[in-house]
Design a protein that fits this description.
Order of helices and strands of chain A: HHHHEHEHEHEHEEHEHEEHEHHEEHHH
Strand order of the largest sheet of chain A: 1-7-6-5-4-2-3
Number of strands of chain B: 15
Largest interface: A-B, 199 and 205 residues
Number of domains of chain B: 2
Structural class of chain A: alpha/beta
Distance between the termini of chain A: 35 Å
Radius of gyration of chain A: 26 Å
CATH architecture of the largest domain in chain A: 3-Layer(aba) Sandwich
CATH superfamily of the largest domain in chain A: Type I PLP-dependent aspartate aminotransferase-like (Major domain)
CATH class of the largest domain in chain B: Alpha Beta
Shape of chain A: globular
CATH superfamily of the largest domain in chain B: Type I PLP-dependent aspartate aminotransferase-like (Major domain)
CATH topology of the largest domain in chain B: Aspartate Aminotransferase, domain 2
Structural class of chain B: alpha/beta
Largest sheet of chain B: 7 strands, mixed
Number of helices of chain A: 16
Strand order of the largest sheet of chain B: 2-8-7-6-5-3-4
Largest sheet of chain A: 7 strands, mixed
Strand content of chain A: 5-15%
Shape of chain B: globular
Oligomer: heterodimer
Chain lengths: ~500, ~450
């Protein structure tokens, strides 16, 4: 139960002279550090951090935690984020000494179990994606995208081709264009048709000998599988370009279809989504990428290899065509350990059931809300769908109906769907229930939504009414940004 | 199935409501010839008991730092993590939540971000911190890209060879795509030669990147290099060891423009290299060029103090290809760990830990060089790591011998620096005891 008195800023709890730790006395002879360092290298005083006891710190952060909605406590249908249950067994496993307490520069012979695990994960991701060569190094999905685009650039350089353009549909995640720019490409947006699929005619107009990569999210951010994907791949390949699959929505197709089998040359996984790594309030994630055999040589190094002769695993740095490093050390191993554990918990049968139930749950929720909310892109979906609150706004005069409904959901104890994304649907509400929610939860959620859309506009426009704060002033926050605490002037 | 609710009966009811005959029908949108008509070729699913046994079996094939003595560092450190860090960070409300898109139900995470940003500013002496990036290496790279945006100079940057070799490799990878030249200043004497920096920094240089203490453990002259960079309109980016700031001068007090750091030392275990915490802080005037999430203070519609994600117009979900970066997450869980760690350590704790590290490092170095076989490669102006030269040029054999005695003695430097083929980097954290140091010296001098 939340203690409403205990959410001051930690700096306001500070009392001079308090200390939360008691550091051991030095067991080596104490010398004066001043003799080792040039003048000015030592600080005149300790850093001005707050002074607290351990109980202060425990009560403070414990109470702060109670101000969050989370998967452990709430239904969280945040579209495109795959907020599914995070298994507790994976947390215990990832904390094993032999997995958590090992240094990245230990000799390979002292970490054979870890290397075997990572090698096994490379193999499993290759099989799930249908793309045979894998790098586990990228630190997040967006980082995987960027890495793959840098890899494409290296591939073209190697072939003596100068290709300058990356294309993606207008429904793409904002990371796609941002990654393209960071990898040194120009970016071109391809419009979608009214049915949500890529407008192939418009794509054709943009394809030429400058085309480097077409990035496609399939299933798309609209929750639809674009059945033209093979045709699109063939077209792009005809012009000598590559297909990148944004794997954000792999949860819908695990064991059903594989990007490598529908024309993708490169893709990333989001293990924190598809393989249920905890989102941690915004990270960590990981962004392993899988590519064709031809592109494999360009992957970042190292990757994990297996030496048949000695029957040992090793970090393979001998990869002359590699683009180099994109991150220090091996990668976000803790996330990868959980992904490995998650995949092994499911096996081939279980992974397919994940996709089946994620898609079943999304279609069921769609069937329960379409009577009172528009779903512009049809009656069927994959793992998520995008409703539009535009007509609700027209009926009741609300200017931002998707926002107002989202805020009102908070009063009923639900985390809202993703709103105002994708940009191609007005007043978008993107709902992704995931496979780890029950029919009862979906029924209750749909019923709540139905209640909300019938509530008075005044109630909605001023929601939420029961949370500790309501509608923070984001304009003021951005106009006069206050990004740290400063002591009050007496 | 461990985590799926729907029973067969419920599935049937749901399909009826949808108007579909079967689950397979829901996948009809995927052309039949694209569907995988076989089971994935991966191992069969395991129950929790078998899974735990399997993972335990893999785990015990790794020798953890609890079974051996770790003198390895190089950007990843075996510092002590107080129990409160694990206890608090493992609360489900923290680790199973996501990016605070709905501030009304994310005030816990947002306040943590705001407190983290403040703590990082206090620690580094900088004006503004973001809510974190992936790791120290990518943070250094993002800082250089940021400096290029601020100075509007895209052609050239200057980097000291005493910056972590892997960080420099990341920079090289990123710069290969955008054609920026990276001039490396050789630090053969263990620190960055300021005259050499002055010679290569010119009016086309966007930024200078140094590390303090540098990869060899030595303290750099931040203030002088800052003056050199600023004289040409370039920025100084410095990667720091946050633990060192318990006793060393803060970069914000030495003219550094953008500070980055690997934050793993602040309460995160080794984890075989990740996930870690990329720290980034800068001067106030640069804030609109800063990549990554930022929490800001504001008031709600009733005038109540609260926190939100702010300055989002920098970010990719608004600006798309014109964003300051493609990064759309922070390392929330590890920023939380760092905030808890710094809160519980306080000024005294940070000072004590930093002092212990440097005392032990100097003790170890002094003990080792009493033996003729070893000498310090550089001067004694190091913090918690030092480079020792094996005059018999047999570092690999020494490390293997130590490994057999359950000691991870150090990091061989020849893999990155040809001229340091006969050298290794030895790292001391506060956890290493006098006995362990004496054992190390014994093993290396047997």
């Amino acid at each position: 139960m939340r203690n409403t008195q205990a959410t001051n800023l930690i700096f306001e709890l500070s009392q001079p002279g308090r200390c939360g730790v008691c550091i051991a006395q030095s067991d080596v002879p104490q010398q004066d550090p001043a003799k080792w360092f040039p003048a000015g290298a030592l600080a005149a005083s300790a850093p001005p951090l707050p002074e607290l006891t351990e109980p202060d710190v425990v009560r403070h952060f414990t109470n702060l935690s109670t101000l969050n909605m989370s998967i452990d406590t709430h239904y969280y249908p945040l579209g495109s984020c795959t907020m599914k249950y995070n298994p507790k067994r994976n947390e215990r496993i990832a904390a094993f000494d032999g997995l958590a307490q090992i240094h990245p520069y230990q000799p390979d012979e002292t970490v054979q179990g870890m290397l075997q695990l990572l090698y096994g994960l490379q193999d499993m991701l290759a099989e799930i994606s249908g793309l045979p060569v894998v790098s586990l190094q990228p630190a997040a999905g967006a980082h995987g995208e960027l890495t793959a685009l840098m890899l494409a650039a290296a591939y073209y350089r190697d072939r003596g081709e100068k290709r300058t353009t990356v294309l993606a549909p207008d429904s793409a995640h904002g990371t796609n264009p941002a990654s393209a720019r960071m990898a040194g490409f120009d970016f071109v947006t391809i419009p979608s048709c009214s049915d949500g699929r890529v407008d192939v005619e418009k794509l054709k107009e943009q394809l030429n000998d400058q085309t480097a990569v077409f990035m496609i999210t399939n299933p798309s951010t609209l929750g639809l599988f674009d059945d033209q994907v093979q045709e699109i791949s063939d077209l792009v390949h005809e012009f000598g370009g590559l297909i990148y699959l944004d794997g954000a929505n792999m949860n819908a197709i695990l064991g059903i279809t594989r990007p490598g089998d529908f024309g993708a040359d490169m893709m990333h996984f989001n293990p924190h989504k598809t393989f249920s790594g905890p989102h941690g309030g915004g990270g960590p994630g990981a962004g392993p990428i899988c590519v064709t055999a031809e592109l494999g040589a360009y992957l970042p190094k190292p990757i994990v290899g297996f030496d048949d002769g000695s029957q040992t695993y090793f970090l393979d740095n001998d990869r002359p065509k590699s683009i180099g490093r994109v991150r220090s050390f091996f990668g976000n191993v803790g996330v990868l350990v959980r992904a490995y554990s998650y995949i092994l918990s499911h096996g081939p049968v279980g992974l397919k059931r994940i996709a089946e139930n994620a898609v079943l749950n999304a279609n069921y929720l769609l069937s329960q809300v379409k009577g009172f909310l528009d779903v512009p892109l049809g009656n069927r979906c994959m793992h998520e769908f995008v409703a539009s609150a535009e007509s609700i706004g027209k009926q009741n005069g609300l200017k931002q109906p998707a926002m107002d409904i989202a805020k009102r959901l908070l009063d009923y104890g639900y985390h809202p769907p993703t709103v105002y994304f994708p940009l191609t649907v007005h007043e978008a509400m993107m709902m992704e229930p995931t496979e780890t929610e029950s029919k009862q939860t979906l029924d209750a959620f749909a019923k709540t939504l139905e209640t909300i859309v019938q509530e008075s506009p005044e109630v909605l426009a001023t929601a939420p009414h029961s949370t500790i704060i309501s509608r923070p002033d984001e304009v003021q926050a951005a106009r006069k940004p206050i990004m740290k605490w400063t002591p009050k002037q007496d | 199935m461990p985590y799926v609710f729907n029973t067969d009966d419920e599935q049937a009811e749901m399909l009826a409501a949808i108007g579909a005959a079967s689950i397979d029908e829901l996948f009809n949108c995927i052309p039949q010839d694209m569907q995988l008509k076989r089971a994935l070729n991966i191992p069969a699913g395991l129950g929790e008991m078998e899974l735990t046994a399997h993972m335990q079996a893999l785990s015990v094939q790794n020798k953890s730092v609890n079974e051996q003595t770790c003198f390895l560092g190089g950007g990843s450190y075996d510092h002590f993590v107080p129990a409160v860090v694990d206890a608090l960070a493992s609360r489900g409300e923290f680790y199973t939540s996501y990016t605070p898109y709905q501030p009304e139900v994310s005030q816990g995470n947002l306040q943590v971000m705001f407190e983290y940003q403040t703590l990082i500013c206090q620690l580094t002496g900088m004006d503004v911190s973001n809510a974190s990036l992936y790791d120290g290496g990518t943070a250094a790279t993002e800082a250089m890209l940021m400096a290029m945006r601020i100075t509007r100079r895209n052609k050239k940057v200057v980097v000291a060879s005493s910056v972590h070799p892997e960080y420099r490799q990341i920079l090289k990878t990123y710069f290969a795509c955008i054609g920026t030249e990276m001039v490396v200043v050789d630090c053969g004497a263990g620190t960055t030669p300021v005259e050499a920096v002055a010679q290569v920094v010119d009016e086309e240089t966007a930024a200078v990147l140094i590390q303090n203490p540098n990869f060899f453990g030595n303290v750099e002259d931040m203030a002088t290099i800052s003056e050199i960079a600023h004289a040409q309109g370039a920025l100084l980016v410095c990667s720091v060891d946050p633990i060192s700031l318990g006793i060393l001068q803060r970069p914000g007090d030495a003219g550094v423009d953008i500070v980055v750091a690997e934050g793993q030392s602040l309460g995160t275990p080794l984890l075989y290299g990740g996930p870690y915490l990329g720290i980034m802080a800068c001067r106030e005037s640069f804030v609109r060029r800063l990549p990554g999430r930022i929490a800001g203070e504001t008031v709600d519609r009733n005038g109540k103090q609260c926190w939100v994600l702010t300055l989002q117009t920098r970010e990719q979900h608004i600006r798309r290809e014109n964003a300051t970066s493609n990064i759309c997450t922070n390392q929330g869980l590890f920023a939380l760990r760092a905030a808890i760690y710094l809160s519980v350590m306080g000024p005294q704790g940070m000072q004590d830990v930093a002092n212990l590290c440097t005392q032990k490092a100097h003790y170890a170095a002094q003990e080792l060089i009493q033996h003729d076989r070893f000498e310090l490669a550089f001067c004694d102006g190091f913090f918690k790591e030092f480079v020792v030269r094996d005059t018999q040029n047999d570092v690999q054999q020494l490390l293997q011998q130590a490994c057999k005695n359950n000691i991870l003695a150090g990091l061989p430097l020849g893999q990155w620096y040809d001229e340091l083929e006969d050298c290794m980097l030895i790292t001391l954290t506060e956890k290493r005891t006098k006995q362990e140091i004496d054992d190390l010296v014994n093993v290396l001098t047997q």
